[in-house]
TrEMBL record:
PROSITE patterns: GLUTAREDOXIN_2. The keyword Cytoplasm applies. It holds the Pfam family Glutaredoxin. It is found in: Cytoplasm. InterPro entries: GlrX-like_pln_2, Glutaredoxin, Thioredoxin-like_sf. It comes from the Eukaryota. The keyword Cytoplasm applies. Keywords: Cytoplasm, Redox-active center. Belongs to the glutaredoxin family. CC-type subfamily. Residues 37-101 form the Glutaredoxin domain. CDD domains: GRX_GRXh_1_2_like. It comes from Solanum commersonii. GO terms for cellular component: cytoplasm. This is Glutaredoxin domain-containing protein.
Length: 129
């Protein structure tokens, strides 16, 4: 077994990076747990626009976080990229309903088409109809 000694600067840099990701995770967790629907977007993204318009059209007033206009946008974007998984799904738009990650545009549209989106929104308290 070989032991590799880390320099104190690289160790402290890793600790700062881990600390930042923990604070990003905590910020996202608090945001999604405190709002019925949260959508992470990038301004000018057509798929983000489609998801927002769909939700507005259904009568939902989601909390929208535009990552390119947020101080921690790059870190949140990196976190969402990890959350999206296998790399086949784009990290934005990222939709959270009832404190849980629903998914991106593909998932939201599939739920809308198969009729499961409105019950999810009602259960989360985003719709009262």
């Amino acid at each position: 077994m070989q032991v590799v000694k880390e320099s104190s600067s690289s160790s402290s840099m890793r600790m700062v990076g881990e600390s930042r990701m923990e604070s990003v995770y905590e910020r996202v967790r608090l945001l999604v747990s405190g709002n019925a629907v949260v959508v992470f977007t990038i301004s000018g993204c057509c798929m983000c626009h489609v998801v927002k318009q769909l939700l507005f059209g259904l009568g939902v007033g989601p909390t929208i976080v535009e990552l390119d206009r947020d101080v921690a946008g790059k870190e949140i974007h990196a976190f969402l990229f990890q959350l999206a998984g296998d790399g086949q799904q784009q990290p934005v738009p990222a939709v959270f309903v009832g404190g849980k990650f629903l998914g991106g545009i593909e998932t939201v549209m599939a739920c809308h088409i198969n009729g499961t989106l409105i019950p999810l929104l009602k259960q989360a308290g985003a719709l009262w109809l």
